[in-house]
């Protein structure tokens, strides 16, 4: 190891060797071979470390190449006009919220007409009555067994008033009641937290639907008025159906897909 | 034709005022009515739009309705005016008492609004001779564009229709067969605005990259390119026909903060104006030989058209100024063409016809301009006057930004489209609020007047068009049919069609 800058000093005083350029070029050209030889020969931890270093270098190189290719591509794609043209008075406006607004395209309309009941989850696991309803014993001696507690998530409407507790047959625990659902629009791939209006259909039967039980596969009606969706007739769409995709009683939230 | 144009000028109408109307003239009108009903009379003074009174106060029965008053006014005005140039058809008028329109009989009006019987001032305003029928059905859906339709414009002659789209093309449509005539390719980006020259011979279009192209509407060929802007062209305005015919000069405003005035003959930029500090949103070439421009820097500038010198700066708005409209915009836009799309043959006569139409639209008053802004207000200006810096009125009432304002063709009303889902109607002379039109469920983007100033059509984000009636101040027709937002609405100068285009990529034609 040189202790001082004597090489530079030498070169300053006497100039470089006459074949200096040639030697550096050859050394550089040979470097890949030397490195490859070493990489094959190196064993143990040194080999591992060296391989890792080489691998990272390779990734870095690929990234750089991709970046250059992209910047070339951008120059080319600049000539193409962007999608989603807006008039002059909407330039620089509402660009942020644009993805939130659902556009009722022709495609969507056709889908709506074709099959409202072609749902994303066509089959669901049937749930037994015993699983949903837990028997509660009542009476002074706890002999009576006609009270039931619902162990699944439920939706209870705003206008619901309880019967006198003594005669209430079905108990819907407040901890499992839901008023909002996370609804995903399948085409826009965006999710909104929307209010539930009602339970349209529970695949496990009419009683479940009436009770407002929400299990996986249930079709619920949600309030989409915030999304600013309009019908071709120019009316605001208020309620739309969505199908629940998770098990709300396990997860503590409702995830659903909008049926469009 | 020229004589007809002259007949509409209020200067002429004021002439018979000097003569004393005899009481017998009014007795002829009043007696047959008064005999049937309980006679209860009011003394009214009739006043013209400019405030001049039409003879001494008259004693008329309270059962008089607008149509009776119309006969009376026509009779009083036609005395001593022998050259009846409208084949004996009485001119329609609307009547106002304290700026409230008279809709039923005088008695009903007085009961409703509680005016005193003494010294009742009735103002009469002339209305258009012709009537435009309200559009009520979609006569054609013209597809072809592969992206949103961004701008729609009828030519001043009413024979051509051009639409600019996000697919970088302009399409010219044949109104008789309602099919495509030409597809004009040449732009490199969204075509944001299209504008016809007042003589209908050239179509100018501006795109999102700053190119302005000129097209021949007959064959759809590109006849020139005006390059210089570096960002989106937001508006194009031609020099009015009464100042020069054939049209040669036009002004464009752009997002690159500048305005440019071009010569279409040489395709040269004559000069450019750079005082705006932010994007320029609209530009208007006024009939007085000035250019007005509004920008997002909240200022409105008035420019000289010879060298591009700034004449004055109008301050008042607190946020982006979005739109401007002139009280004479219909006359300037239609140039020498009348409501049937006819024009005199020679250029000189056509220029004179355009001047006649312009002066009729002025009505002996200075030109007014209204501007609408993001600060939810509008201002009424007289930018051509010496004290033009002072606004005539500040119009407040909208609860969201004002996207477009339009003067009615006779200059008496202003309609404003706002993002608060309403269209509001204002008095065009004083800027007073008249009424709101509610009905849209989403922001209203554009409004357009019928040529007779009796109807307004509005296009909205809620995918519908709505036609509003000015007399009843109510919804006249609901026109659903678009599948998505309506970006552009235009009512033909001849009144036969309304064209609309939007995000659903098709252009719709609406008819009666």
The level-1 CATH class of the largest domain in chain A: Alpha Beta
CATH architecture of the largest domain in chain A: Roll
How large is the count of helical segments of chain B? 7
Shape of chain B: globular
Strand content of chain A: 15-25%
The 3D shape of chain A can be described as: elongated
What number is the mean pLDDT of chain A? 85
Percent range of helical residues of chain B: 10-25%
State the assembly state of the protein chains.
heterodimer
- In DSSP terms (H or I, runs of 4 or more residues), the helix count of chain A works out at 7
Count of discrete domains of chain A: 2
Largest interface: A-B, 26 and 45 residues
Please give the largest β-sheet of chain A.
5 strands, mixed, barrel
Order of helices and strands of chain A: HHHHHEEEEEEHEEEHE
Key descriptive features of the protein:
heterodimer, A: 260 residues, alpha+beta, Structural Genomics Hypothetical 15.5 Kd Protein In mrcA-pckA Intergenic Region, Chain A, 2 domains, five-stranded mixed β-barrel, three-stranded mixed β-sheet, 34% helix, B: 512 residues, mainly beta, Ubiquitin-like (UB roll), Methylamine Dehydrogenase, Chain H, five-stranded mixed β-sheet, four-stranded antiparallel β-sheet, 7 helices, 13% helix, globular, disordered N terminus
